[in-house]
Amino acid sequence: MMILTGKTIVSAIRPPYPYGGEFMSQFLFALRLCWFPLLISTVAFGYGAPGLQAANFLTLFGALDRAIPGLGRVVKQNANSGVAAGINALGKEAELEGKKARAFPLRFVDGAVFLGPLKVGQVPPLF
């Protein structure tokens, strides 16, 4: 096993590189398989996480519509279940004035506002 390990390391470091063609064929296969999810995630993440741009949250859906017409509408229609799941995951069940409510862990750290682990905003200095 040690000899095989040594030969593998030497083959990976010193030319000729016999694995180049196979690497490229596997890379292109993965790219052909995943190009559409990569495109969607690049557009969505390129416009920033909605929690970090709270004021421009709805522009994310507009950006999706510009990239692929109709995609923003589909996301808006299906967002309710995701929002409900996120609220249930972050908040703890509580009672407020005799009604069911949710309690959320809200904290401020150096001007940043966190809702649980998510940064939701930045507060400017007060002085």
Please give a structural write-up.
- There is one protein chain.
- The chain is an alpha+beta fold.
- Helix 3 (57-67) packs antiparallel against helix 4 (71-90).
- The protein has a domain at 54-104.
- It has helices at residues 2-13, 20-46, 57-67, 71-90; strands spanning 92-96, 99-103, 106-109, 112-115, 118-122.
- The strands form two sheets. Strands 3-4-5 form a three-stranded antiparallel beta sheet, with no helix packed on it. A two-stranded antiparallel sheet has the order 1-2.
Tell me the Rg in angstroms: 24 Å
Characterize the overall form: elongated
Strand content: 15-25%
Number of helical regions: 4
- Estimated helix fraction: 55-70%
Runs with pLDDT <50, length 5+? none
| SSE series | HHHHEEEEE
Structural class: alpha+beta
Profile the largest sheet. Answer: 3 strands, antiparallel
